[in-house]
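Record Wadjet protein JetD C-terminal domain-containing protein, 358 aa.
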Amino acid sequence: MIAEVAKEVPTLAPRTARLAALLEEAERRTVVLDELWDMWAKSDPGGIGRPERRANLADAIEELRAANLVTPSKSIDKSALPYLPTRVTLPAPANSPTATALARSIIWRPELAWALSARLTVGQVQTLSTINIWLRDNSHKDDELPLRERSLEVFGHEKVLDKAINTTLFGPGRITLDMLRTFRTHPPLAGTRVGDGPVLLVVENDNTFHSIRAALQGQVNESSWGTVGYVAWGAGGAFEASVRSTGDVQGITRVRYFGDIDIDGLRIPRSAAATAAREGLPPVLPAYALYQMLLDTDVRQQHRSHVIAPVAAEVAAWLDRPQLVSDVTALLGAAVRIPQEALTATTLVQQRTWLDGL
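=>
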């Protein structure tokens, strides 16, 4: 059966398979020649500038046509030889069983035998095929490398595994980090110890981090620090990754987060909270009093774009208190934001209520 399918669907050359994967990600089913050239440059970077580059693209298009992955247009570009179609059309998803057929044309190692029955895209088959070859050639080794170092070794690009790890290729019974002898690193949190409490207070932006840290360290009476043990700079979106470092902070049982009231300022802790829950880390919760104080300021800025109601409600839900959620959802929907810098160093020193409930 495998031999029959392999005859019907030719195995794609590596650079052609890379082109097929890029075509799968195209926004439209019809891809014009200029777009094809851009994709081909990514698929065959070593061919850039070579006289046979056009012929190689023509061969790749023919491979994809033979595999029923594209239908070349009847109109052609005659500006040079060989002639090329002016566009190609991708089959509708329901009419594209080619990925399964391609998977069946490969002799898989036992660790990847599940690829024969999985629902995969051509790009995923190509990723698995590359890993299949790497496992074949490296299974006798026992080295362990960080994720991006391993990705560069296996795929020739350091970020391929970053993207793949969040897909259905990874998981129980599929690819694991142990299988690839790799591990995810995470950036450290830039933080300062300010007390003995069990709370790590993470602040999105560096200026407000400085002001909060100064307000805490400037207190003579340590009991006024409340439950805060550490204050850390989240560095904006970096906290989505550095949240994994929270488990390394001794004595911390929960994380409180304070950021801007805007779509990114809420998306970041929401994502970090999901990561913390998934990986058994201290929970990431809102610094409720700080958010309420921010809402109580008279600072309002027009945001660059409106946020549709369902998205606004979804990100605001992380705040987990009905009035906060309602108020913030309304602001986001009106394309209004409040930067956390609206709570100045002076305000943070004079109004100590922001420590309540941490």
